[in-house]
Predict the 3D structure of the following.
Amino acid sequence: MIPKPSTIKRHLEAIITGLKYIFVKNRLTLRYPEMVQLLSENYRGMIKYYMDRCISCTLCARICPADAIKMYTVGENKLPGINYMRCIFCGFCVDICPKEALEFTNIHDLAYYTREEQIQKPIEFSKGPPKPIFKKEPMKIVVKLDKSRGLKYERT
Amino acid sequence: MISLDQIIRLIFFPPIFITIVFPGLIALLIVIVFLIWLERKIAAKVQLRYGPLYILKPLGGVIQTVADLLRYLFAEVIIPRRADKFSFIMAPILSFGFAFIPIVALPISSKYFAFKSDLSLLVVLALLTIAPIFILIIGWASDNKFSFIGSLREGYMIMAYEVPLFLSVLAMAILYNTLDIIEIVETQSKWVWGILLNPIAAFVFLICTFMMTARFPFEISEAEQEIVMGPFTEYTGIIFGLCMSYSYIKLYILSLLFAYLFLGGWYPIVWPFTLNPIMPGIITLIKGLIVMIIGIFLRSVYPRFRVDQTLRIGWEGMFVLSIVALILSFSLVILVK
Amino acid sequence: MSEDKFMQVLIGPQHPGSGHMRFIVKMDGDIISEFEPDIGYVHRAVEKIAESKRYIQIVPLVERPILADTANINLGYILALERLLGIDAPPRAQYLRTLLAEINRIHSHLYGLGIHGIMIGSSTIFMWCFADREIWIELAQELTGARITYSYMIPGGVRRDLPNGFNEKLSKAIAYMEERLKDYEKIFINNPVVTARLIDVGIIKKDDAIKLGIVGPNLRASGVAYDVRKIEPYCAYPEIDFDIIVRKEGDAYSRVLVRFEEIKQSMKIVKQVVEKIPSGPIINESYLKLIPPKLREKAEQTGIWKMPAIFINLKPRKGEAISRVEAGRGEVTHYIVSDGSPNPYRFRVVTPSFRNLIAFKYTMPGHRLADIPAIYGSLDYFPPSADR
Ligand code: SF4
Ligand code: SF4
């Protein structure tokens, strides 16, 4: 079994490519939670609710495919509350709301200590998503696409 | 009372120093810890990742393996109910032991060695070939189909690498006209390095080393996507840790052997190394490390072969090449005479 | 022959190389003599759940089976639904759909290539594919606001317009990817170990492929030039110039090559889409006028459109509709039966993996145990998509 010259060439090419990458200074890992990506404004993250704009039309609760939004009776009104354990962030509720009472935020870090915290009644829902807590203030970065490096993480 | 002087003398008594300190247990442990870390780090670098990072962050996570070992240490050792308990526990320990013993026969320099024998090269190789037998036993003892297949594969691999490995060593022995490692190194210091004298034998030895130590592309007996963890599927805890380090020990010994046989061993001895008979060992270690690094680097380049393909490489490629290496050695010897 | 000659090996579902399914393998030494894929481990009754959902609510639901390729499976559903509703998407929306579908195809192929790589032991190609996949996810996120589950297509159009600066980002991504694919070739495609493992392994002959009903890249690798995008063009595909990649060999390696070349084709398509994209609305006129004027004005500026309230109560005519689209892994067929109520009477989706599954049974026997992951990966089979 004598290997063809082309096979040897391919072996060498593979090894050289491997070696090349040892010296390429590029890493695509995002070191969460030390680095946190600042998501773009139109990201479909956790949802913010403006109670004053809401007209209790129940459209959001009716379109929600995951039954995450439920209408609660608050005083005279029926207002929506959200269950983040069910929400799949499809954003249908935001898109169907006729009064823009629901809005996307670019907050993505959905982690709570207790189960109850994730079921938010209208009042809590209207407070907006909580600011994520980090042990150490993370480095905020934006992801840029780059011709030579693919993804580039830039500090903001 | 034993005085400090006596203790120091005891430590530096060659048979003890070689087995316990260098190139024995302590050096081995450090090298394995470093090597596994480096393997992951190189792979990570090629794959545009960071690799181990968080344990001792200023040094890039270099003691990650120590942390892993600690984890193995505290993990529960589960012995499957249907396993053959005695051999299940003893086989990995023995394979570890037999992989380790050949270190005794490795000299540090021409003046510092555990024992001098004109067959020390054979002793190392013979002891190394015992260890895989226990892998076969592991396969039987675990009572798991994947372990069984894995150990059978290991058995097939022995077929593939053993003969060419020995023949390539034989080629070098003919060339140096001795089987004593010390003399082999001395002969090289008078001539040139063995790798220049007989590059074919060096190549065969290197490839067979990778086969023997389950480096990519010959990581066949442990092929994860095919047979889970090969022979070691059923192992947990510290015994699993032993199993994992088993192939690295073999890599360590064979790489040192490669340095002795082909890279001129502890020569050239330059100034700081002349001070002490132990110091030249560092040169051997560095040469050996280079070989090991080549071995671990290949992980990030190659996938793995099939077992039948490896057998074919062993018999149709390496075996033929080793015969060529033998002929080359003979003709060189005749030429010189 | 006594039974002892054969060894039965159960691979999966808890096995590093099985995915979410089990193979019942009968081994004769190292040779596979019988191979039985045992599916259903991740069956989630998507079709049955769909019967209890409203039409719009099925949009996120159909995405779940094929997570690497959500846009394409979604597109199929929307096309079928639009046929029932008797509505069409405006040209700009068609182009946007094509754009996302192709970005997703690249994503899906990279995913498949990476998984195949790790299955035969190359961790480098796995990491590379999964890292570079991130670039396409990033682009899709820019367009839709989500990383994987886009729910981007709605009856009569799409939800969002091209964001500012998208073309520039896209051209950067394509330039990067083209460079990278050269390295992919060197380290994986041309790697002698890879060719040794994959060439002449798992051959599906042309006739067999047709008879078994294999779809997608696997079919094209067997020499059948069949691609729904050409045969029954939908969206913007009729106006776009691209080739069907076909290879004759039908082995595992040719399947890898077809996928690899299709990544390049998809980049070609994406480039054309952003060049040729017409201006205009992205939602059908009849729905557009139902959106309150104030919201419409705002949407025209931001490019993020609202949905009309009628979407909750979409009631298609009584009848049935079928649609076919070419997803990354092959042809997806959607079939909807409507009884005029807001929920479908019957919903059926035939995923490419489900159709490719049969190939396991007929290609594996005769190969070695080590070939199982090599062939499995080359078929780009995805258990959750087959099980639904
Ligand atoms: S984002 Fe989707 S799942 Fe979440 S609450 Fe809104 S409609 Fe429901
Ligand atoms: S759709 Fe908007 S306005 Fe209607 S109930 Fe929900 S939040 Fe309130």
Remarks:
- The longest helix of chain A spans residues 5-23.
- Chain A is about 25% helix and 25% strand.
- The helical segments of chain A are 5-23, 59-63, 92-96, 115-118, 122-126.
- The first strand of chain A starts at residue 35 and ends at 37.
